[in-house]
TrEMBL record:
This is FAD/NAD(P)-binding oxidoreductase. It comes from Arthrobacter ginkgonis. Residues 4-137 form the FAD/NAD(P)-binding domain. InterPro entries: FAD/NAD-bd_sf, FAD/NAD-binding_dom, SQRD. SUPFAM superfamilies: FAD/NAD(P)-binding domain.
Length: 375
């Protein structure tokens, strides 16, 4: 008799878990992979959209291309979850699987920052990247403020990549000398796990004349006055770009799965307090940054747990590992190899930046595209 596994969310974690279960438990599991969207987009592709290297259609990978034995994809929206009964309700059906894995990611709470919805721009969604791309095309110089509005947020290097790539774009257009770039973050360092990467990013910004204010937060913006509101003062801007506040999807709050804003899991097994219910990726609180490669690592932990529950034996991966590519502009890319469960504490060695890692980053995406979609 096969075990039924339902994966809610087809991002990095959900796709990798489905692929791994298909490989390791062929004939022993039936996997249903659910996502409300019809296509997958790599997070780093949104920078390509923002800076005009690809359009929205080019970065979409339709889920209909999934070809994993024993895995069925369904485009449905999750409406309710009863974790105690492992009961899932979508806009198309009702399910009672043996195992539920929640991988629904994080949503953006644009309204959490006063004024942001009316006067700010973001690039963490494809639609937001398109809107900001068009705004930048009309930009003729001035004060640009890019701010991280809350912690945690997905892909910690992304704000720094964006400001460095924006510098390159403004130089190419001949308006960099007419512009002031300022990045603001509540974090103490760009990539806290990697002092080496943080130093490299801070030096890159300084070399380009990009102002950097760390360990400060913006509490709101006034779109009419065009000022950003810090705790004790205001600063003017002509273009405001924000990394939106992140939040867990409402359906997970309603299911009673959250604690302190995110889904509570055992940090070794990634199981929730409910038997047979796991959570991975951006929706889960694991003490590890929210990024695709860490969701991928978490998928291997849960896959090991499912194998052990079915076969009665097996080791668990430690999880907490991942690599992150960081765009520095001018075709240079750096790489951080993070291990949050390393002996002696988290480590994050940094390599580059150089064009070598740009090619490696492209191969990273191509390999996952081939693994998950066969193309």
């Amino acid at each position: 008799m096969t075990t039924t596994v339902m994966i809610l969310g087809a991002g990095f974690g959900g796709l990798e878990l489905a692929s791994t279960l298909s490989e390791r438990l062929a004939g022993e599991v039936d996997v249903t992979l659910i996502d409300q969207h019809d296509a997958f987009v790599f997070g780093f592709s949104k920078l390509d959209v923002l800076f005009g290297h690809q359009d929205a259609e080019q970065v979409r990978i339709p889920y209909r291309r999934i070809r994993m034995p024993g895995v069925e994809f369904r485009q449905e929206r999750v409406l309710a979850i009863d974790p105690g009964r492992r009961h899932v309700v979508t806009d198309a059906a009702v399910y009672d699987p043996d195992i539920v894995v929640v991988a629904l990611g994080a949503d953006y709470d644009i309204s959490a920052t006063p004024g942001f919805a009316d006067g700010g721009f973001e690039f963490y969604s494809v639609a937001g990247a398109e809107r900001l791309r068009d705004e930048l095309a009309a930009f003729r110089g001035g004060r640009v403020m890019l701010a991280v509005l809350s912690i945690p947020f997905k892909c910690p290097p992304a704000p720094y990549e964006a400001i460095l790539l924006l510098h390159d774009q403004l130089v190419a257009r001949g308006i960099r000398e007419d512009s002031i770039l300022h990045l603001v973050s509540p974090q103490r360092a760009p990539i806290p796990v990697s002092p080496w990467a943080s130093i490299a990013l801070e030096r890159a910004m300084a070399a380009r004349g990009i102002a950097y204010t760390k360990h400060h937060r913006i509490y709101g913006i006034d779109p009419d006055a065009r000022v950003a509101q810090f705790k004790d003062h205001d600063e003017p801007y002509d273009l405001f770009i924000g990394i939106p506040t992140h939040k867990v999807p409402d359906v997970l709050v309603e299911a009673g799965l959250t604690q302190d804003g995110w889904v509570a899991v055992d940090r070794v097994t990634l199981q929730t307090p409910y038997a047979g219910v796991y959570a991975i990726g951006d929706c889960a609180e694991t003490g590890i940054p929210k990024a695709g490669t860490f969701a991928e690592s978490a998928a291997h932990v849960v896959a090991d747990g499912i194998v052990r529950s079915i076969r009665g034996a097996g080791e668990l991966a430690s999880g907490g590992t991942g690599l992150c590519y960081v765009e520095f502009g001018h075709g240079d890319v750096g790489r951080v190899d993070a291990d949050f469960h390393a002996d002696g504490g988290p480590t994050g060695p940094f390599l580059g930046p150089s064009p070598t890692y740009a090619a490696e980053k492209a191969e990273f995406g191509a390999a996952r595209r081939a693994r998950w979609f066969g193309a």
